[in-house]
Amino acid sequence: MDKVLDGKVLDGKVALVTGGGRGIGAAVAARLAREGAAVVLTFQRDEARAAGVVAEITGAGGRAAAVRVDSADAVALVAAVDEAAARMGRLDILVNNAGAFLLGPFGELGRAEFDETVAVNVRAPFLAAQAAVRHMAAGGRIINIGSNVAERAVFPGFALYAMSKTAMIGLTKALGRELGPRAITVNLVNPGPTDTELNPADGPNAAVVNGFTALGHYAEPADVAAAVAFLAGPGGRYITGATVNVDGGFTI
């Protein structure tokens, strides 16, 4: 995980990262803090782990806090966005990272799996963005975290997850158009195979997955975080409605 360093292009900004207690979310939270942003991250279960991310950021001189919330709980999620803005005094950046990763044969996926996936992967980003823009001034950033499978599903069992992540393309484009007059940008980052607990780079299917990428290896969470930080910073001010694939060439 990155440490907070000097040269902070996001100094004075406040970011909310949903699902920021581990994996890509934790890397994003750390990178935004490194760039100078105060960070609020949400987590659902592992309080100790989220506290560890906060401690690393604050120990390196940054500002951070963690809020427990289930992104499938619409009321609690909106309250968490408002709490983040109230705690830090403003809100400039929203990273919709929390996700449900439910896989299985199409004929065996039930209504419960469907409802959870849509609640977390589609409804939650919509509602979080809706709540966040009430606090954002010109220059605000909304960055959605999608998935490479929205563009290329090479394995069976991904129908539900791919459907939910494909919805982020439409949300990102439409919100980019709608919020443009307010100088709020909205973009989508689609990670490819990334070395996390859910999908380790040394897992049983890693060799096959690597064969689908042009670069032949997994990303590190920091690679995804770097793209998010660029879009959140001054270099991303004229980019909106765009999809950035951080996938090692998985979709080409």
UniProtKB/TrEMBL annotation:
The keyword Oxidoreductase applies. Gene3D superfamilies: NAD(P)-binding Rossmann-like Domain. Pfam families: adh_short_C2. Keywords: Oxidoreductase. It comes from Asanoa siamensis. The keyword Ubl conjugation does not apply. This is 3-ketoacyl-ACP reductase. Belongs to the short-chain dehydrogenases/reductases (SDR) family. Residues 13-203 form the Ketoreductase domain. It comes from the Bacteria.
